[in-house]
TrEMBL record, chains A, B:
Domain of life from the UniProt record: Bacteria
Annotated organism of origin: Stakelama marina
Lineage: Bacteria, Pseudomonadati, Pseudomonadota, Alphaproteobacteria, Sphingomonadales
GO MF assignments: DNA-binding transcription factor activity; transcription cis-regulatory region binding
Keyword DNA-binding: yes
UniProt cross-references to Pfam families, sorted A to Z: LacI (PF00356), Peripla_BP_3 (PF13377)
Domain HTH lacI-type: 12-66
Protein name per Swiss-Prot or TrEMBL: LacI family DNA-binding transcriptional regulator
SUPFAM superfamilies linked: lambda repressor-like DNA-binding domains, Periplasmic binding protein-like I
Keyword vocabulary terms for this entry: DNA-binding, Transcription, Transcription regulation
Length: 348, 348
DNA sequence: GCGATATGGGAAACCGGTGTCACAAGCAAG
DNA sequence: CTTGCTTGTGACACCGGTTTCCCATATCGC
């Protein structure tokens, strides 16, 4: 009877494996980590015992010895559930079959000590790295904080926010430009715009795309064709009411996200306007709601899950790919999805 | 110059604090963990150094020494983003300001080796505990697996699935009964029902509620007034088409979730029917979409976030409350939210 | 047959905390 | 002045891995 027998119920440790296989801890460690300097016999024997015992290395002990854990964090303050979940899916896809796990951390943008809160989170947990979701990813002080603490990070955003190694971005500006161009090609010349909230990079980029397209087409519009929104359904509804009160009123409205586009649709419906006959609507994001409302919404598909996957890959690559420096792209293209919410403008 | 000086960049360790404060590791540990057997002077001095150095205990080392980590897992296979995110919020609210973190793990219900996959997840990470979301929480083998492995768990569900200490449930059956009774009180006597997918406890409970209400009101309906759905928008649409093809057709339809209710709405619209004038609709869940569509949907609010919070509390209580055995309730009430999608039936 | 060189494998230190126990100091009781 | 108890603190082993270093053996060239 060995002095140190395995307690029932508790997990087998490396010592158990070593004892039963008749080798040292280190050899077991070598087998588990696939060291090449091993006799095939030894390897087989140890593997046999590992399998039989169902031995799984203790991640805490590993993390301690390696001075590095295998947790990647997702810091977000995005109110859109679809988006957040897609990002989670993307990250999880990237770390599937690796030893990494995903730890989520929503933060409150409004909170005064938000940055301090995140610092504590990062320092306490000593995460391997974090993915920063928009809009909080646009916060430069946060990125600076990560650098200070020495925590790897990747920022997701609507424009180039950081060095390629530390960000993944989508080309919102171009995508919106194309969407507006599509409306113009359909014959629209009075196009309303519902913006995102002030200070958000995505809002700025999307608006720039809007202006690019108008300028390219030589269209001049009064400032009033741009209404402020804040990415919520209600704000879209309110903004649309303002736009539809204009005279002449717009024949098409681009909303900076789908949720606001749904609000625009609601506003149109309340006035008895038919979409797309009386008013064309284009959204942004291609959330499920876009295809579930009536009429299905023409919108810009934002490859958020792919971006998230890539972000996680950038974070973990150094470990999994053995310094291979596979360069994951840092720019992702959004594309226009044409559904039924756009038609040529009504003849006056 | 101490032999073991702190490297720049790396975090201070307990040894650094001990050395600088002129005490032993153990004393620092005592201070950090708030042991009462301490001289006030010593405590002050150590706290001073801790603060000055910004010392934070290494969670991996702690986890190793305590043979217990501070990660709680969320295992889910729920396709509804709103629901999943609400559950995450609930859990996070419960563990706010504790040392626990949330690790998410979506699983694929279709996958043959799903259980094995989850076992690996649980064994590898040695989580403190897991919250099991519906529908996978209804899987008894999974609960059995948790017990075998010795992993604490709490199942969320629509009925009593387990001992009170291991579950939180909502009273779906009663809630649906009340909702249907409300329709009956409005004058409806032909009420269609769109069910959830076969084998889901929530689907069964909701259907039982439906039948309870009809029976209580003495209403007999043909079997065809119940149409199968699977909680997706499309299935709701299809089910509604079948129901609306009936003659006489129902004057009200209850859908077992909001997404399907949205599909029902869509189907009605396609036929040129007005909601609620020609058809009343009631959903279940009270997801944001319910209040964003037109007309706003009368639906059953399911206190999912509260349930999740409670689930997490049950899990962590033993640690944070020092065996206090605060009994967190295990039953939560769903309530009917009355909006504009219900009206008395049209006169024939 | 000899030393030189790979190669497989083990002993012990270490990662950064916590638990156990011993011990010293202070103080009351005998 | 001992004895005994309480209180505050430290030494040391331990959690379960990895890393460093070193030794034993097998292989090789001469």
């Amino acid at each position: 009877m060995a002095a140190k027998n395995r307690e029932n119920g508790s997990q087998p440790t490396i010592n158990d494996v070593a004892r039963i296989a008749g080798v040292s801890k280190k050899t077991v460690s070598r087998v588990v980590n696939g060291s090449p300097l091993l006799n095939d016999d030894t390897r087989k024997r140890v593997q046999e015992v590992v399998k039989q015992l169902g031995y799984v290395p203790n991640p805490q002990a590993r993390a301690l010895a390696l001075r590095r854990n295998f947790l990647i964090g997702l810091v977000h303050d995005n109110p859109n559930a679809q988006t957040v979940l897609k990002v989670q899916q993307g990250i999880l896809e990237a770390i599937r079959d690796t030893e990494f796990e995903l730890v989520v951390r929503p933060v409150d943008r409004g909170m005064a000590n938000m940055l301090e809160d995140i610092r504590q989170f990062l320092e306490r947990q000593r995460l391997f790295g974090v993915v920063l979701m928009p809009p909080i990813s646009e916060n430069d002080s946060l990125a600076e904080l990560c650098r200070q603490i020495g925590c790897r990070y990747v920022r997701m955003g609507s424009a180039e926010l950081d060095e390629p190694g530390n960000m993944v971005a989508s080309n919102d500006r171009e995508a919106v430009r194309d969407a507006i161009k599509y409306l113009i090609d359909q014959g629209h010349s009075r196009i309303g715009f519902v913006s995102g909230p002030h200070g958000f990079r995505s809002a700025i980029e999307r608006r720039l795309g809007f202006e690019d397209a108008l300028e390219a087409a030589g269209i001049k519009q009064p400032r009033s064709m741009i209404a402020d929104g804040n990415y919520t359904f209600e704000s879209g509804l309110l903004a649309a009411e303002r736009l539809l009160d204009l005279s002449p009123r717009p024949t098409a409205i681009f909303a900076s996200n789908d949720e606001m586009a749904t609000g625009v649709l609601q506003a149109a419906r309340r006035r008895g306007m038919d979409v797309p006959t009386d008013l064309s609507i284009v959204g942004f994001d291609d959330t499920p709601i876009a295809s579930h409302i009536w009429p299905p919404l023409t919108t810009v598909r934002w490859p958020i899950a792919t971006m998230a996957r890539s972000a996680a890959l950038k974070l973990t690559m150094s470990v999994t790919e053995g310094e291979q420096e596979v360069d994951e792209p840092s720019m992702f293209l959004s594309t226009l999805i044409r559904r039924s919410s756009v038609a040529p403008p009504p003849r006056d």
